[in-house]
Amino acid sequence: MSLIPTYAIPDSLPPPVISGTTVQSFTDVWGDVWIAKNGVYGGAWKRARDTLYGKWYRNAAFTLPAGQAAVPLDSTTRDPYSMYTNPAGSAAYPPISGLYDILWQVTANATASGQWVQPRFFINGMLMGVSQSYASSVNAFSSVISQQFVLHVGDYIQFYDNASTALAAGVGAPGYWTYATVEYYGTG
Amino acid sequence: MSLIPTYAPPDNLPAPLTYGGIQSYTDIYGDVWVALVGVNGGAWRRAKDVLFSHVYRVAALNLTAGGATTLMDGTISDNYSLYNPGFQSGVGAYIIPVAGWYEAVHQVGGTATAVGQQMDARIYNNGVLMSVARVHTTLATSFSAITTYLGLCNVNDYVQPWDYCSATIAAIVGSGTPPSFGPGYWTYSILRYRGTG
Top-level CATH class of A52-186? Predict the structure, then answer.
């Protein structure tokens, strides 16, 4: 046995963050990552794995255009650290490096059989996730992507769709039809 | 600095690994750590942070009528070599190195040749079907199925992504051309350790 402690000597967290606008991170001597932000939990430090999570959805009526386009998510279920700061581009920005889970579901209301929809997500402008579903009747239909990636500060995730024709999105609160989640899982 | 301790009493990790396969260590607080020669210098890392694999299909592949494993031949992340494409003479599987609670995701994309074709994404554990999602196509073009699985696994359990189709269907494989298209966005699988269970 060496003398590398897992949770040995006490470690001290920095004082709460009471200025600035960005997320601060701190890695303790045991490798756990903590984050804090001015105005969030009083600026107190929280374990990133416990708190770094966002869920957004589309509430207002929205037409998924034919072809590829960003889907602006206009409502937030949870996003304490404000990752989703660019609704027009439908972009979320992970504030610390690590392994993230990305989930993206799009629902459309078909007007004819054979129509299709693809949720797509991009990382730094590169397509990294896609799936595709078809309508077999004039009804709502959905498609979902679930992926996990190691991301870095400055990376951004964008939530898009690609549809065979213009279709009304499934929308509304609390966001079970068209929504996205981003969750920090660990250091990766 | 304030005096808020993150953790209190002591424990010791073993020395970094210098030989052998992946090892695990459970500290006195129940946290599981892993180490592997050549990964982070053999240093111990929390399994929850690092025990993760994301692989995808590169080479052309026909999804056959009936079921078969979806052999993955490209890697996005797999530092601890969880995925073994040579398992059982090349059918491929994730081999569980540490007992615990695992999450698996499997998506398969295919190009239908006729209306009404069916495709499953499936996940097996030790040869037992644990999760399945089925889709049908209403056009002869691309479509996809995705399924997830959360389950307790033991050391040396083998977790396999499968496909199951109504007819032979070409999988959608490979990578697009950067910077617009990345790797493995149609046919891929993921395995991640989530805790002791």
Answer: mainly beta
